[in-house]
Write a structure and sequence with these properties.
194 residues; four-stranded antiparallel beta sheet; globular; mainly beta; Methylamine Dehydrogenase, Chain H; single chain
Length: 194
Amino acid sequence: MDFTKGERRFQVVDAESLEIIEQFDFAEKLDAAGYSDLSPAIRPMAHTPDERFFYFQLSFLHGFVEYDMEQGVVTRRAALPNLVPDMPRELYINDSAHHGIAMNGKGDTLCVAGTMSDYVAIVDRETFDYTVLTGLGEKPYWVTTNAKGDRCYISWSGTGQMSVIDIDSASEIARVDVGDHPQRIREGRVPASW
């Protein structure tokens, strides 16, 4: 039923004027790179600090693709482990093999939520080598980084928790019970006087 989901377009919008600066059909970009087998439905994404390279998670993909915004081409595909190879696509939550990706502050490492496989992957941006952390929770469904960019936060929607991951050591340094089915995470600050 993929055809019922409408157009899959990516666009860049000026935040001040709301003018569309660029817009394209991602299926055409994938086809040109030889990835016509991938869904063009972009899930969460991350980008380098200079906004040149974008890392797009796509529906049903265990991994992500790298897109060069300057050249306008998909340059690479990162294949991450599929720990549920026999699961039918129809059972993927909202078509998400993976759903959550963030870039560290230095722009050299990605933190990825392996939603259907119940893992977090710490991925080297240059080589796409990765470390997979399993056994922390169930159904990771979002990833963000802290303001310093040296830690990533993972929500575990299936176990009502979030993890704090030290990116450099690829290790969990804290886990917090946060309530039923957490998804989006944001870091905030509260004045000490409160």
